[in-house]
Amino acid sequence: MKNTPPALRAVYIVLVPIVLLIILLNSGYLQRWLPAATVHGETYQVVDYNYFYFDCYNRFLEENEARLTELGYDPDVAANKQNYDADTTWKAYFESLAEANLSETAYYCDLAQAAGYEFSEEELAPVQEQLAENEAYCATYNLTAKNYYISFYGSGMTEEIYTQHLTDQVKAQAYKAHLMATLEPDQAQLEQALAE
Description:
Strand 1 and strand 2 (42-45) form a beta hairpin. By secondary structure, the chain is mainly alpha-helical. The chain has nine helices and two strands; from the N terminus they run H-H-E-E-H-H-H-H-H-H-H. It is elongated. Strands 1-2 form a two-stranded antiparallel ribbon. Helix 3 crosses helix 5, helix 5 (90-115) packs across helix 8 and helix 6 packs antiparallel against helix 8. The termini are far apart.
């Protein structure tokens, strides 16, 4: 390094940290440790939040594949560069869906845990079905599980993290369905709600 010209040394001093930072950001390590949201007192890291964001985003693309142009969404343009409506970008729209999904999932999981609710195999079956679908997709397109989860759910996503959040979502929906099927409001509450 003694014989290296000062200009080249300066380039190394600037370039090496930038390259290391890019490698660190793409590794997913930071996404697993940086907090992104707090719901019901529990902190969710960026990778956790990304699960809910990309779950909403991927479901939107899948459900509206034939209508994207009609809806005003171009998947080839960044979501923050196009508007959902006059005041909201598509990215903000997907974020609002993700935050609602995350809050609802945390809420019903907390209720189920507090009630000591035991989930049946039938209620948890959608988890294994989705994992089997993911595995079939990987086999069809010759992807590794690692590449699949990073491609569809962002840097730092692993099959383990994905499975945990998917299981929480399935449990939340199952417990919500259980509550709706078993709880009936009393007549006074119903009349008051209708009056309001």
